[in-house]
């Protein structure tokens, strides 16, 4: 019996020991578990805290981004408003100076003016070697009219600006520059050189002409004229606009004996040859030359190469005064197409109040019919930019820059021309006279402007109607007095 009790007691002791072991194992387990839970909880809490911090940072960032976006929008709106104001001010300034402006350039006395090769009389030799016209200030030219059998008369003529013989191509171009900004603002612009044969029209518009290759930039040839300089400037302005928003097409024509010749038309071998074209008025009242060749150009170099090709075909004949006289009017047209990004991207620049007739400008007209000291009023017309003629539906707006090197005017009686040359001279003088009529009609604000009286004025109709800038070139002789 006692051995049974002992066995039971032993079993109870072992069970106790097992229970004790189990208990301490359970304790250990629970301690581990608690520790792990604590760790996980800590990690979860840290992660939550991090997320909270990130959320806060995100929120701050979002608020800042929103603020920045708003101020960017405000700045952008202010920039657009300032841009509109700049356009208004710029174009008002251009208008205040006059939609039609006539500047006079006197060219220096050159060696060939007195060269013995000239078949001129002794009397003319004497007159040629003395300066008969000079600038008395930057708006006045004094001309000594000293004709055989007449008493010497000094006449003064006033222009918007007079350039003396010493003034550079740079100075002349500086006055043209603001018009190019207007061009990109949606106005058509016409810049032309008018004057007697040999007076420096081609030099002013293109630069010195050589038999060699065309000069391709102002760095290579500082004497470059208005045409290459204006093109460089147009491409410079375009480079500041969004890529692909503007493109430029070029046409080169000459008006010879009242006929229009396309100087960029190519034959089947790709060679350029002058093809006769006609000018018509479209149903929108614009001038257009059907089938005229337009070449797209990407930069001023490409443009000059094209113009150079066209120039090879231009009619030239020697006159008594000038061995390489251009006998045709050269019209280089840059058509700039602007992609309108939105309906209001070409919002009107003028309010009604602003478009009311502004300053009238007094000019002495310098064209043959008005040379007899007539004082004409050239009002500043409140012309609308070309874009206004487009409806909102249109996606593209076209503006034209027409650069014109007119044929030399000659006094038929004094130049001694005969035959073909006489015919050329008579056509040249008739078209210049038609140009004078058009400008007179615009100046007097007549309801009918006789653009169609000559192919030259018909061709230039759109640009003369907006901004017209004429450079009256003078050499030492002024035959038309
Ligand atoms: N401001 C100037 N400075 C230096 N040379 C000039 C200037 N103006 C003109 N010349 C030179 O005078 C000559 C005649 O000039 P240009 O060919 O430009 O005359 P034009 O008016 O175009 O003549 P035409 O009507 O007969 O073609 C050229 O040799 C030209 O280089």
TrEMBL record:
Start and end residues of each Kinesin motor domain: 99-481
Main location: cytoplasm
Subcellular localization(s) per the UniProt record: Cytoplasm, Cytoskeleton
GO terms, molecular function: ATP binding; microtubule binding; microtubule motor activity
Pfam families attached to this UniProt entry: Kinesin
Coiled-coil residue spans: 65-92
One BP annotation, GO: microtubule-based movement
Positions annotated to bind ATP: 195-202
GO cellular component, one term: microtubule cytoskeleton
UniProt keyword annotation of tRNA processing present: no
Superkingdom in the source lineage: Eukaryota
Keywords associated with the record: ATP-binding, Coiled coil, Cytoplasm, Cytoskeleton, Motor protein, Nucleotide-binding
Family listed: Belongs to the TRAFAC class myosin-kinesin ATPase superfamily. Kinesin family.
Protein name, as recorded: Kinesin motor domain-containing protein
Organism: Gopherus agassizii (Agassiz's desert tortoise)
């Amino acid at each position: 019996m006692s051995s049974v009790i002992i066995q039971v007691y032993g079993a109870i002791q072992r069970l106790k020991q097992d229970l004790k072991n189990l208990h301490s194992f359970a304790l250990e387990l629970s301690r581990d578990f608690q520790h792990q839970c604590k760790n996980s909880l800590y990690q979860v809490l840290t992660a939550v805290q991090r997320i909270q911090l990130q959320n806060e940072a995100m929120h701050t960032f979002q608020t800042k981004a929103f603020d920045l976006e708003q101020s960017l929008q405000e700045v952008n709106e202010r920039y657009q408003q300032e841009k509109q104001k700049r356009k208004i001010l710029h174009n008002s300034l251009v208008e205040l100076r006059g939609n039609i402006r006539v500047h006079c350039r006197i060219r220096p006395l050159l060696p060939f003016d007195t060269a013995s090769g000239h078949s001129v009389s002794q009397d003319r030799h004497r007159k040629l070697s003395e300066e008969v016209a000079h600038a008395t200030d930057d708006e006045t030219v004094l001309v000594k009219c000293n004709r055989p059998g007449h008493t010497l008369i000094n006449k003064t003529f006033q222009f918007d600006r007079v350039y003396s013989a010493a003034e550079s191509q740079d100075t002349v171009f500086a006055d043209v520059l603001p018009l190019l900004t207007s061009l990109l603002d949606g106005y058509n612009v016409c810049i032309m050189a008018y004057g007697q044969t040999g007076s420096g029209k081609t030099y002013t518009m293109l630069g010195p002409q050589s038999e060699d290759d065309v000069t391709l930039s102002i760095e290579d040839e500082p004497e470059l004229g208005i045409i290459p300089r204006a093109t460089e400037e147009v491409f410079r302005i375009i480079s500041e606009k969004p890529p692909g928003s503007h493109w430029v097409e070029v046409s080169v024509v000459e008006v010879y004996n009242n006929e229009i010749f396309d100087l960029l038309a190519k034959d089947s071998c790709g060679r350029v040859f002058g093809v006769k074209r006609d000018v018509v008025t479209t149903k929108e009242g614009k001038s257009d030359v059907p089938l005229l060749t337009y070449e797209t150009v990407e930069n001023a170099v490409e443009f000059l190469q094209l113009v150079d090709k066209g120039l090879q075909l231009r009619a030239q004949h020697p006159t008594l005064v000038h061995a390489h006289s251009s006998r045709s009017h050269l019209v280089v047209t840059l058509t700039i197409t602007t992609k309108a990004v939105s309906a209001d991207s070409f919002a009107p620049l003028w309010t009604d109040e602003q478009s009311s007739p502004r300053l009238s400008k007094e000019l002495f007209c310098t064209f043959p019919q008005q040379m007899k000291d007539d004082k004409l009023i050239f009002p500043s017309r409140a012309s609308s930019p070309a874009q206004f003629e487009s409806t909102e539906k249109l996606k593209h707006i076209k503006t034209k820059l027409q650069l014109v090197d007119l044929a030399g005017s000659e006094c038929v009686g004094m130049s001694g021309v005969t035959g073909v040359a006489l015919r050329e001279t008579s056509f040249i003088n008739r078209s210049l006279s038609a140009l004078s009529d058009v400008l007179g009609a615009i100046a007097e604000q007549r309801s009918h402007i006789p653009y169609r009286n000559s192919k030259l004025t018909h061709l230039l109709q759109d640009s003369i109607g907006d901004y017209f800038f004429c450079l009256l070139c003078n050499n030492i002789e002024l035959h038309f007095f």
